[in-house]
Amino acid sequence: MLERYELEAFLTLAEELHFGRSAQRLHISTARVSQTIAKLERRIGVPLFHRTSRRVELSPVGRQLYEETRPAWDRITDAFTRAVDAGRGLTGLLRVAFDGPAAGQLMVGATQAFRARHPDCDVQLREAQLPQVLPWLRSGEADVALTGHPIRDDVVMGPVLVREARMLAVPTGHPFARRTAVSVEDLARVTVLRIPETLPDSLRDDRAPRHTPTGQPITHGPAAMTFTEMLTLVGAGEGVATVGAHTRRYFARPDVTYVPFKDAAPVEWGLVWLVDGATARIRAFSQAALGVVQEPTPSP
């Protein structure tokens, strides 16, 4: 029979595939994670992970064990959380991170709606730069965050709260700046700035794809760590960047022009939280945020 700490260590390492990050997430030493996994493998009789000096991978048996135990563990932890929340009510502190001023404005509205429904639960709002979102969730500095989708990692993507037109940020003197619209195929003719490699591939591929829809390669420029840094690099002629339509309102700059795409999928934003971190507070806040964006606009 698996002990709880063994299962937590196994599931965390299966998701992180890195002993150091797993130890940080579990708040134990790297040696403890390694010892726990080794003990578990001895009991099962086969390796659960293949380890080299550069990478950690699940073995076939390890992958099967993960796929069969993860859903059951989620149900157990969710049931326990619901029992605790039912006993205590929706009280305590919910830490909410947001990425950018537009996201902050939406979170203010969601917080007001949430507090009206659950006055005994406090909400702390904090702005995070995009590369900080996942580390804050994993370290417990934030319980839930509003950021760009898609993030397919060790997080749950809540319902999409905002869909907005995708635009291309270009230097004001660039030939594209004189256009009324650009095509996704035009990305093969320019250098596209990257977002940090520490972010999930799903988000990086959405914001800075490697190929156009017809298969033309896209040249990538330097990576920007913050949104302001990215727009500064655009203005300096280091490359272009795909952004959401709200950028024109919140980040108007004389050196950057925003040109709409005529054939690109919209940019999506939504709440994210850790797979094993869902609570009644998070679910209630998600519902409050969804209610805010679904409210009908008053007639003029």
From TrEMBL:
Residues 1-59 form the HTH lysR-type domain. GO terms for molecular function: DNA binding; DNA-binding transcription factor activity. CDD domains: PBP2_LTTR_aromatics_like. Keywords: DNA-binding, Transcription, Transcription regulation. The keyword Amino-acid biosynthesis does not apply. Residues 201-221 are annotated as: Disordered. It comes from the Bacteria. InterPro entries: LysR_HTH_N, LysR_subst-bd, WH-like_DNA-bd_sf, WH_DNA-bd_sf. Pfam families: HTH_1, LysR_substrate. Belongs to the LysR transcriptional regulatory family. This is Transcriptional regulator, LysR family. The lineage of its organism: Bacteria, Bacillati, Actinomycetota, Actinomycetes, Kitasatosporales.
